[in-house]
């Protein structure tokens, strides 16, 4: 599930500075939630991070700072898994131009579709920065990234409800609820609650968007 607001209330944004995602483990239907108010690159990192929690078989609310030296926590382990999946150290060592500039961070971030913060962490992991150099640059870059996130969320409009709501709920979940309601197994009242709507017209609009007959 991906959502950047509370329910469907566009006036109550989920702050990426507070949390980026969570994982709910279950043997039948484990769930990953990603904060959609974050940058796209950060959302991808969160997705892999939360999947790592699922692989461990545990639920978690995730917000592990990458400027912490704690290496034995589960959060830091999941960070390491996500970082290696998205930017393997072997690739970083061969691709890094040895120039610690914003332009170089942006180049690597765009190439690997990750955030500049993850790029910085991998440069440190590869041994190209000392801990003190890394933390100083990380905190400066973190401030820059969060300002960009705030600007993006401040300028964004409401978007197309019928396209964003299935992402907020998960397309599979929304389709399952609509199909169950059409078959008579779920009441329309329950369906409206599960889908976050109060109108039948909205229910039908979601069904049309998801192509549920």
TrEMBL record:
Domain of life: Bacteria
InterPro entries documented for this protein: IrrE_HExxH, Rad_response_metalloprotease
IrrE N-terminal-like domain segment(s): 24-123
Protein name as catalogued: PF06114 domain protein
Organism: Propionibacterium acidifaciens F0233
